Task: structure prediction
Amino acid sequence: MDDFAAEIGMDPVEVRRKNLVAPDKFPFTTLTGATYDSGEYEAALDRVLAAAGYPALRAEQARRRASGDVVQLGLGLAVYVEITAGDMGGETARVVIDGAGAATVFTGSSAHGQGHHTAWAMLVTGELGIPMDQITVVHGDTDQIPEAIGTFGSRSLQLGGTAVVQAAGEVRDQARRLAAEMIEAAEADLELDTARGTWQVRGDPATALGWGQIAQRAGPDGLAADARFDASAPTFPFGAHLAVVEVDTETGKARLVRHVTVDDAGRILNPVLAEGQRHGGIAQGVAQALLEEVRYDADGNPLTSTLVDYAAITAPELPSFELVASETPTSINPLGAKGIGEAGTIGSTPAVLNAVIDAVSHLGVRHIDMPATPERVWTAISEARSGR
Amino acid sequence: VDGDQRSEVRPVKVAISVNGTRVEAEVEDRLLLAHFVREVAGLTATNIGCDTTSCGACTVLLDGESVKSCTVLAAQADGHEVTTCEGLASADGQWHAVQSAFHAEHGLQCGFCTPGMVMAAVSLLAENPDPTEEQVRAGLEGNLCRCTGYHNIVRAVLAAASDGQQHDAQARYDQARELPGETS
Result:
């Protein structure tokens, strides 16, 4: 896309802008058959440009080019749409309330750092009013969770999280029936005070019953409900990344100095967890563009089999990331959520590589293979300068 | 020289102070400090990630300075003081400022690099109590993280630095050692 922009003499931003799907076209079915659920693509691009100060960056780039600065500046854009929960396998959850009023959530979506314990507890607190510290999340035990799919493909919240909400909703319906018997009131007259975690006749705190009392009434096993959520379709997160790279034209060393992103994954449950997913994804995507490569010798022996040989990216090779918030809900699931796990990697790799090439495009460079190592960048500059 | 030297086990006696507790054992001369800490002292916060001195998951303090314990022999630590992540909190269970900051700033996801990252940060702040972001990043170069993109780890270290010395176990330790009437 940047080659096309350079060829016709248009700013890469404008080429993209002209080709983005407008908000009133959603749901949008592509020629290859995918149906994009929701999107604000141009707004994502504009937010990134505004946060980055795009015109000022272009001006600084022009200044360095005019002065023949050894360290040149490059701007790289990527606008993307991705598919999440595309496996269509569904997910399961079980919510149990014990006689002490504590909840246990059994989830088929196992956590390995994404923050499911926090997220699932937030969902149950929101549905039932049981405090977070009274909620235990159990995963990864097939004795207790016989049917499950797992955590991959940016699917957990939208499938597993929705299943948790549905199981909690079923528990709430059961509790309403039991509370009505206990208080001797009509179900329709009862309300759940989610701030206190109590059931009562509407407006009458004197009738309040706690979750523990109701769970005891349900029997020795407490209150329990299972749910399985199968989404009708995948969801399509989107975003825009702008990478700002400095390239030393004498050594070929490229350094990412700023990275500004919108990663819109629908409604956000927990901003801290969502940002964490973006941070990690961006870093891995940057690493793919600049450093990381699995290499083999002519006989097929792996040359990058330890962390000595494989260039995993380190803290000084990255800046702090500049994340811009954006939430465009989906109607595919009741949470309005799409996936966030892979967004960072999808946007950052092309943005950073585009930035490296942009930094040296005025020297005649049009293409550099990933990873854009100093050797490759230096070679590209040398070949362009010598007219090869 | 007779016999196969490669298979010859050479036991050595070591006495290492681990988190203030003296651990004595007869170990193989080739035993790494990382394995000593995990298997002899039984402290498994110290992770082993790569065995090639690349990842920093096994970082501990040796006489207060961070080392990758997969690249130190237990025999080399004989008579010295080792601090692991388990040894950072105070006796009453209060977390070290760096631990609290990692928690507050969401400085970890899967957690595998975290004990080593925390120990590297403690050492970094001991050397430079008021670092810039660039200095924090340079100081953590030897510790790999695959989840966080380092973003919140760097924020946590900067937050711990600005948090001052009031939660700092090392500062309390140093204070306690000061003689009455001595001016600092």
Observations:
- The interface with chain A takes residues 49-50, 52-55, 106, 108-111, 133-134, 136-138, 140-155 of chain B (CB under 8 Å).
- The first strand of chain B starts at residue 11 and ends at 18.
- Helices of chain B lie at 33-40, 97-104, 114-127, 133-139, 151-162, 169-177.
- The two ends of chain B are 57 Å apart (CA to CA).
